[in-house]
Specification:
Blueprint: H1 13-28, H2 31-37, H3 46-55, H4 57-61, H5 65-76, H6 78-81, H7 89-127, H8 156-167, E1 171-176, H9 183-192, E2 198-203, H10 210-229, H11 231-265, H12 278-308, H13 310-319, H14 328-344, E3 348-359, E4 362-373, H15 379-395, E5 403-408, H16 416-426, E6 435-440, H17 443-450, H18 459-463, E7 466-469, H19 475-485, H20 491-501, H21 505-519, H22 525-549, H23 558-565, H24 571-581, H25 589-611, H26 618-623, H27 625-637, H28 642-655
Parallel strand pairs: 1-6, 1-7, 2-5, 5-6
Antiparallel strand pairs: 3-4
Helix pairs in contact: 1-3, 1-7, 5-7, 7-19, 10-14, 10-15, 11-12, 19-20, 20-21, 20-27, 21-22, 22-25, 24-25, 25-28, 27-28
Length: 664
């Protein structure tokens, strides 16, 4: 593994080899890993984990490639490459601190994104046959955040997106999928794995103004360019500040020494050198010479600050114009600063001249001035300026694409017409050479895009080069997700979380959080399943009550709500109540939909309670994987197609040899 040439040829191995063993030791010393090793049944030792991590060095270091580049950059010395030497101890300490900060960031990234997920997976593989029907979770820091690009599971649909993004380097790609499926995480992972391009991630506003949003996007891109390429200027500025502090110290020392020297020699004898006595001459003269030397060195430091300051360079370029071509960093930083200033501030320029002629008893005055106020940019001008800036940045990045712009959470705009209007108004920014645009959209947008070629066109069809759907996780992916985040959750409990969450990564993690509370101290599968279903029932009962209260026409929902309140996590009771929740003759369409959703949901919960018991052995689990997938798929369809979900639950129960509930 080596770094780019612009790091001065310094090998990344010089950072990895001396530091990686310490990072692995830190991971092994964490409470969750130590709790896993404390189980003697595993037969694992710290040396085993250490050897396993070192054997997967490339895998655990890959997530921290951007941080590694920062470390090598700091060590190569931006100060040295700009012609500087740190003249004072303060500057040296500052350089060391900068390198230490970059190294600490790299170590933290490798620890949390590389080593810990690898060790959790290895321990879980050993635990799987030992804790099949029991939760053995001691610590779960991997479940702290639902949205975390450190734990991306390489699904088929995610890989399809990565492949497509590698092919369509210039254009707009839509990323569709239901809420919570992991679209944002996939986008973040894609940007993280490509540190070279200038990348920005901007959430789409629910209540939006196209002009304000594009201005915000413009400003974010300018700020990212400054963050990436103004590092050298920040280094010089920091060094100059330290040098100025050193100059002040030397100047104060010079004044003190010179004053003491004058007192030793005597103020009256200072100029009469030939009349100095021997001792005052030696002592005072030495102090005077040292003081003058300190003053001279302080002036030298001041001169170096003046010569290297950006203000001096700008002044010299103005007075002595030449053919010097600015570097890539200087050009991009200058462009970003000018454009950011124009975005944020309106400018007023005043020019003029005045004169006065005075003669005896007469005075004549002349005065003329012109004031020019800069007007706000119109929306077409903003789009044009942004496109031009993206082209400038992309043309100077030695990568393809040079700029990645991600617009996230567009699917939060629930009104399909408003979402189309938003895309229609901002799509003028798309299609810039050297830039790639990633936009998370709803399934409605994907459906509209897939109808292209028919005599129906909309904003999605004309805005995107391609739209990829991120599918919910399958059972294997769900097991891999929880296996990399937490120790002590077997595939049986991962399957339970998968079926209750419908394959949505966000809900799988939330269910896993609740699982630890439901398990108590080493709870079995039936106890955990009962606790999870009971808690979910309480939330859904409240949600269905709210839904019925908002129905048009105020239908009589008394019996329906009464039936909901009788629900508890016993499968027999749930199956008895299911028929009372089904739609009745005379129900209006919207109320029928709510009743179908409620009945199918309770039917699903009863099925989950009957399946996840102590009788579900590893052998039957392996045999029934496909059927368990269909139970999770039924949960996915529940919100939009409850009758289809009912049929899928029926099919699952028939395959599992469980009695079905008739709908009539």
């Amino acid at each position: 593994m080596t770094t780019p040439d612009w790091f001065g040829g310094m090998a990344a191995d010089e950072v990895i080899e001396p530091n990686l063993p310490g990072v692995i030791d830190d991971a092994i010393a964490t409470d969750e890993i130590q709790a896993g090793l404390a189980d003697p049944r595993l037969g694992l030792t710290e040396d085993d984990l250490r050897a396993h991590a070192m054997a997967n060095q490339a895998r655990i270091c890959d997530p921290a490639q951007a941080e590694l580049n920062e470390v090598v950059f700091a060590r190569a010395g931006a100060v040295r490459r700009s012609g500087w030497r740190p003249w004072s101890r303060a500057n040296w300490r500052r350089s060391v601190a900068r390198n230490d900060a970059a190294l600490a960031a790299w170590r933290s990234k490798v620890l949390h994104d590389g080593v810990l997920p690898l060790l959790r997976t290895q321990i879980n593989d050993r635990l799987a046959p030992l804790v099949w029907a029991t939760v053995a979770v001691h610590n779960s820091p991997g479940l702290d955040r639902v949205r975390d690009s450190r734990f991306v599971v390489e699904t088929v649909s995610a890989q399809r997106f990565f492949d497509l993004a590698g092919q369509i380097r210039y254009g707009a790609i839509g990323i569709a999928g239901v809420r919570g499926v992991g679209k944002s995480t996939v986008i973040e992972q894609y940007q993280t794995e490509r540190p070279e391009p200038v990348s920005v991630l901007v959430p789409a506003p629910v209540q939006y103004n196209a002009r304000e949003f594009v201005l915000h996007l413009y400003a974010q891109l300018c700020n990212e360019v400054l963050r990436r390429f103004a590092y050298r200027e920040r280094v010089v500025r920091d060094v100059n500040r330290g040098t100025l502090r050193g100059m002040v110290r030397y100047l104060v020392l010079a004044v003190v020494l010179f004053g003491v020297g004058v007192l030793v020699v005597g103020p009256g004898q200072l100029l009469a050198v030939t009349h100095w006595s021997l001792v005052p001459a030696v002592v005072g003269g030495a102090l005077l010479v040292i003081g003058l030397g300190c003053a001279g060195f302080a002036l030298y430091l001041l001169g170096t600050v003046v010569v290297t300051s950006s203000a001096t360079r700008r002044t010299l370029r103005w007075f002595l114009p030449g053919d010097r071509v600015p570097t890539r960093e200087e050009f991009l930083v200058g462009q970003a600063r000018r454009r950011l200033k124009r975005i944020r501030f309106l400018q007023t320029r005043t020019t003029g001249w005045s004169g006065k002629l005075t003669i005896p008893n007469t005075e004549i005055g002349f005065d003329r001035s012109t004031e020019q106020a800069e007007q706000p940019l119109t929306y077409p001008e903003i789009v044009h300026e942004l496109r031009r800036f993206i082209e400038l940045v992309a043309a100077r990045i030695p990568d393809s694409p040079g700029v990645i712009v991600a617009i996230d959470e567009l699917d939060k705009i629930e009104d399909a017409e408003r979402a189309q209007q938003f895309v229609n108004e901002i799509k003028g920014v798309f299609g810039v050479s050297g830039a790639q645009f990633l936009v998370s959209v709803s399934d409605d947008a994907l459906a509209s895009f897939e109808r292209r070629g028919l005599p129906v066109r909309d904003a999605f069809d004309s805005a995107f080069d391609e739209i990829v759907r991120i599918e919910p996780l399958n059972l294997k992916d769900a097991c891999a997700l929880l296996g990399s985040r937490v120790i002590g959750v077997s595939n049986l409990f991962s399957a339970l979380a998968h079926c209750m969450a419908g394959g949505l990564a966000r809900d799988i993690i939330r269910t896993a959080r609740s699982m630890r509370a439901a398990a108590g101290q080493g709870g079995g599968i039936e106890q955990v399943c009962r606790g999870l279903v009971a808690a979910d029932l309480q939330r859904k009962i409240h949600a269905f009550q709210q839904a019925t209260s908002q129905l048009d026409g105020a239908p009589d929902t008394t019996d329906f709500i009464r039936a909901l309140r009788l629900l508890h996590a016993d499968p027999t009771t749930l199956l008895q109540i299911v028929p009372t929740l089904l739609p009745e003759d005379g129900d209006k369409a919207d109320f029928r939909q709510v009743r179908w959703q409620a009945a199918t949901y309770v039917y699903h919960c009863a099925t989950v309670r009957e399946v996840f018991t102590e009788a579900l052995t590893t052998e039957r689990f392996d045999q029934e994987r496909l059927n368990l997938e269909s139970l999770a798929t039924a949960k996915q369809e529940l919100g939009t197609h409850p009758q289809l979900a009912w049929l899928m639950v029926d099919e699952f129960r028939a395959a599992w040899e469980l009695p079905t509930v008739p709908t009539a």
